[in-house]
Specification:
Number of strands: 11
Structural class: alpha+beta
Helix content: 40-55%
Radius of gyration: 38 Å
Largest sheet: 7 strands, mixed
Shape: elongated
Number of domains: 4
Order of helices and strands: EHEEEHHHHHHHHHEHEEEEHEHEHHH
Number of helices: 16
Length: about 450
């Protein structure tokens, strides 16, 4: 079955297929003025697309040696067209070609009829060459633009020094406000950072900490960190494991549990009026983890509340918003009561509480009996206890508790800006899960505030 001509507006069948030579093929594509419907760019013909005989001049053909057949000359280009005007607005380039061709075609009509065909053919060739030149230039410009877009600036090997003047980048990767804030934290870890058992000669300790914080803050894969810092993937893994253990033991030495005097001195005035005996605000948090391979571990870490495998920890903060208690992390199946029972809060030797202190907690933390021996009250929202509704005084009390207990929710929410706590801890780092949770919450204490000044 003959193939229909691909020239716009032509309904003839049969013709010549597009040449294989790229340059000549491009000239044919330019000449027929066909654009792709989807991309709006120059149309690209298929294997069987043809241009019919009506679009070629007689001079474009040559006879074979037998004389009974005509073939296209080697550089023949279709040049006979009757393009129809469209209703849509013409582009400036089309208008330029139209005005130039119309003006040139009008001149020979005033002279004689013999010059019409010659002038017409000449102008078509000129217009065709101009179109071809412009389209090819557009293609080259487009290619240059692509090259420019792909030319992404490279920072080379990642180093904290490279972003020393860029506070946004430092905050994005580490959570610290600026370079000085970051270095303050590094020096707080002590000079032993230069004497770790595993030493990497390719990265100094400041950049090793930088890599570890990127892992915690942005949850980057080890292979990506190896590319950024230009070290092997195994080196990245060993650096991160070393620094997580190092930071855990160093930060664990800091006594974050404040005395009763410090709590009173730093307690906000409104908090002091409504709940002056509050020593700590407590709440539990769960961190998703990759499902363990061991069946018993899967059962121990399964959380009925989150419907996934998690680690669970109890977090406490002062009325001012500083984190004052971070428990060890347990499987998601552990209850709030079990976590508190295993903590040192109930140990009389720790002297965590004094008689008359109060703990503010969520309704689900039922540990009043555990602290009763120490004379500590657990302040939680009221239960209905068979009543259809709470008394007005109880409703007012619950609202006041909720307005103050939001501090611990803010602290936990801000700490989970460390994406490793939000997106999940992988199997390879699961044994360090409890230490990772502790480090992320401990680092949050280096934050200047939990609420922005303009909030």
């Amino acid at each position: 079955m003959p193939q229909r001509c691909c020239v716009p507006g032509c309904k003839a069948s049969g013709g010549h297929r597009f040449p294989n030579d790229p340059t000549l093929r491009m000239k044919w594509r330019v000449a027929i003025r066909r654009t792709d419907v989807k991309t709006k760019k120059l149309w690209n013909p298929g294997q069987h697309d043809v241009v019919c005989y009506d679009h070629f001049l007689a001079t474009d053909y040559r006879r074979t040696l037998s004389g009974d057949r005509c073939r296209l000359t080697e550089n023949a280009i279709p040049s006979v067209f009757k393009f129809m005007k469209t209703c849509s607005e013409e582009s400036p380039r089309a208008k330029r070609f139209k005005s130039r061709s119309d003006a040139s075609l009008a001149i020979p009509l005033l002279i004689n009829d013999d010059s019409i065909d010659v002038q017409y053919e000449t102008e078509i060739e000129t217009t065709k060459e101009a179109q071809e030149s412009i389209i090819i230039n557009d293609i080259e410009s487009s290619q240059k633009s692509k090259n420019i877009q792909c030319d992404i600036p490279s920072f080379g090997k990642f180093s904290i020094e490279s972003f020393k003047e860029d506070n946004k980048i430092i905050n994005y990767y580490t959570g610290f406000q600026d370079f000085d804030h970051y270095m303050m934290f590094f020096h707080c870890l002590g000079p032993s950072a230069f004497e770790l058992e595993f030493k990497c000669t390719l990265l100094n300790p400041v950049d090793q900490l930088f890599m570890t914080l990127i892992k915690l803050r942005q949850n980057k894969e080890d292979i990506e960190l190896s590319m950024l810092f230009q070290v092997s993937q195994s080196t990245v893994s060993r650096i991160i494991i070393t620094w997580i253990n190092y930071m855990y033991f160093q930060l664990k030495e800091i006594n974050i549990w404040p005395s009763q005097e410090i709590i009173k001195e730093t307690m906000p005035s409104d908090f002091s009026k409504k709940f002056p005996k509050t020593r700590v605000i407590m709440d539990a948090t769960e961190i998703p983890i990759e499902r363990p391979s061991n069946v018993e571990s899967q059962s121990a870490t399964w959380s009925n509340y989150k419907h996934k495998n998690t680690l669970k920890a109890m977090i406490g903060c002062s009325p001012r918003g500083a984190i004052t208690f971070i428990s060890d992390s347990y499987g998601g199946s552990a209850s709030d009561r079990q976590i508190i029972e295993k903590s040192n809060l109930l140990d009389p030797a720790s002297q965590s509480f004094e008689k008359g202190d109060s703990i503010m907690a969520d309704r689900g933390i039922l540990v009043q009996d555990l602290f009763a021996n120490q004379g500590v009250q657990v302040n939680i929202p009221n239960f209905l206890k068979g009543k259809s509704q709470l008394d007005p005084a109880e409703v007012l009390h619950d609202r006041r508790v909720a307005s103050k207990r939001i501090h611990i929710e803010r602290v936990i929410g801000l700490t989970k800006s460390f994406k490793i706590l939000k997106h999940g801890i992988c199997k390879s780092k699961l044994q360090l899960g409890s230490r990772i949770v502790f480090i992320c919450f401990a680092i949050s204490n280096f934050r200047k505030n939990i609420v922005h000044r303009n909030a």
